[in-house]
Specification:
19% strand, 401 residues, 5-stranded antiparallel β-sheet, 8-stranded mixed β-sheet, 13 strands, alpha/beta, 32% helix, homodimer
């Protein structure tokens, strides 16, 4: 259901919704016993939730489509992932949890090496260390001055950096200056309609950068890609009428939550600390996005057993969640990350929604195959999760008389 | 998922996909034992594929819609059948495997009988024999001359023929000349915007035809219907990045495959010969469309037992398919043709997709009712089959980062 339709039906009550996202939770069966990670895990508490809840599998983007973290999360937050696409520069900003403001222009950057004629000899400046990167970014940030514009030069990792331009009347419709080719020169900044001012600023930025870095071989120039404006999207707490908080240890997910207007809660690096943050902030919000990263990381590593252990660890913390007496619990992932594939995949993602009024189905267990016959079906579009949760929280008015 | 979206995610690998289409495979239970044709068939190999694969039923066009062969196949090839509609003239050309070129205008024709005042006395010219039809078509093809245009006059069957106009600047937006009424005169050619040139050509064609056939009573005139241009559609091998071959014994299916750019492989009339063609061409293609006609023909005849036997024959050839070591196998039909109804029907069509990474569901058997609880769901839109198969073949990039 589209956000505009839903937002007209919002009703305010004091119910609370928890969305527990185990990143990349969906899996594939291992050879030894034909069980997926979820099926192999000992998880009595999640199974009990499934037993008392309504289950299914959701499709983050569409059939056959493997989602990145951006679309994967936007889908379960109710945003149509084909309509709301994040520019590469913006995504890089989210990845380091940079607080983009409306009108900001972000671009991904590479430190590179150029010769005396300006020709690129190494597009990654010999993959300089992150420490070296930080040193140069600091230097550029201190020295570059462009009238009327604030320039942020932020380290990402190794040779990668983020540039953010903050000012008025800036546009993100610029082409890359990175020719993606050794021996070529960096491309002149160019852009589409209305981009003249931004093009001049980027030219100025690159000229100053070249001067400042002239003695910093191998990182003596910067190539820019994926210019994009901070998207002007609907705000999650406004659309759904939910005072919303994100509990996430990793910057990308904090960035995504911030992009759609959730509050970010300070938390630790462990799952236990994340649950503690939930408890401590329980009275202050209507909606909690609780993000567990390690299911995905171990999936990407092909580490079946460790992914299972993370699921079991989360399961062990479910009683603490239940003691908070939430009205609606959503347990799912943003996509599948089968250990067998060591990567994100297109497979539908196990989903359970629990509430007092969910109309429990016959699914007794939280697993890929058990969920197929659940009441939410084997292919629920991800954007339908929030409306269902909202209904279960009795936060949606009747449509029509 | 729409073709444009998918085509942006295409990745090239050396995996192979086989789409085995048993035309009209879906059925209805017979009275004696309440089994459908698929359920009654002894088919251990297809059941094994279902057991190790992911199953469901697909909807070729939509709920309640009985598809013709055109939309039935276009759907499973990933084309939105409401957007990509084939004109009647074009369909007639496909039906005799006429090689339409871009810009060609095709129309269906009937030989008819007119009296001396030009009034139609028999719209089908006494259903002349196909041999007679061939004789007259040859005569017309040899004698009709229109400057700047090549005219093809092709026999279809009995009183039915195909006219194709090949030239530049032709349009298909002409109304029928067939008044569909005895005692009326053939209608004057007329058309929409930009059709002036084509209208003059058709007038010229009909004038010459009338002169040439004046002594050929009862087939002394031609009525034209369903003018249409060769559609300018996306090319299947380009959209999906698959070198694609069609193995089909019947002209209509060869025509459909050719229309979307598949290569046509020479094959025989038997199913065994079709499998042989598959084996012989295995190394040269990424995608094979293997079409079995007889399931539909026997369904149309109301011959339950023979439809069962065709399924059993296909089943017996599955081990030869498996020995080729395909990466992805799709087994389905283009629509249902229940013997009980002796016609195409609206019922969803059994579907199985097998691959190493398909995430097998709990379906143990390939049948209408067994597939309902499969992971692909009971109502998968047909256009989603190809994206899922492409994902299983690891031929789709991640969407978003």
């Amino acid at each position: 259901m589209d956000l505009e339709f839903i937002s007209k039906l919002i009703k305010h009550t004091d119910t609370k919704i928890v969305m527990l996202v185990m990143d990349g939770i969906g899996g594939l069966p291992r050879e030894t016993d034909n069980k997926t990670e979820l099926e192999a895990a000992y998880k009595p508490n999640l199974d009990k939730l499934a037993n008392n809840g309504i289950c299914g599998l959701h499709l983050p983007v569409g059939h056959g489509i493997t989602p990145g973290s951006g679309p994967g999360h936007l889908g379960i937050f109710g945003f149509d992932t084909k309509k709301y696409q994040i520019g590469r520069g913006t995504l890089e900003a989210l990845g380091i949890d940079f607080d983009l403001k409306p009108g900001d222009i972000a671009a991904r950057g590479n430190f590179c090496t150029i010769d005396k004629d300006g020709k690129i000899t190494d597009r990654r400046a010999g993959r300089i260390s992150t420490e070296k990167n930080q040193e140069i970014c600091k230097l550029l940030g201190e020295r570059i001055r462009i009238p009327g514009v604030k320039v942020f030069v932020e380290t990402v990792k190794e040779h990668r950096l983020l540039i953010v331009l903050r000012g008025t009347g800036l546009k993100g419709n610029l082409i890359d200056t990175d020719p993606q080719e050794i021996g070529a020169k960096s491309l002149e900044p160019k852009g589409g309609p209305g981009s003249e001012k931004t093009v001049e600023i980027v030219k100025n930025f690159l000229k100053q950068t070249k001067d400042i870095l002239s003695n910093h071989h191998p990182a003596n120039m910067v190539l820019l890609r994926g210019f994009s404006e901070k998207p002007n999207w609907p705000i999650f707490p406004e659309v759904f009428g939910l005072k919303s908080a994100a509990i996430a240890a990793y910057p990308m997910y904090r960035g995504l939550a911030r992009l759609i207007g959730m509050d970010l809660l300070e938390t630790g690096q462990t799952i236990e600390e994340e649950f503690k943050t939930l408890e401590e902030n329980w009275d202050n919000y209507d909606f909690f996005f609780l993000h567990i990263k390690k299911t995905d990381s171990y999936g990407e590593d092909g580490n079946f057993d460790s992914k299972v252990k993370v699921i079991e660890q989360v399961d062990g913390l479910i009683p603490r969640l239940m003691r908070l007496n939430p009205d609606v619990i959503i347990v799912t992932g943003d996509h599948s990350t089968p250990s067998v594939l060591k990567s994100h995949s297109w497979h539908p993602v196990p989903l359970l929604i629990w509430s007092k009024y969910c109309r429990a189905d016959n699914v007794k267990e939280f697993g890929e195959r058990a969920c197929i016959t659940g009441g939410l079906g084997p292919n629920l579009p991800a954007i339908e999760i929030l409306p269902i949760a909202m209904a279960n929280a009795q936060r949606l008015e009747k449509f029509g008389a």
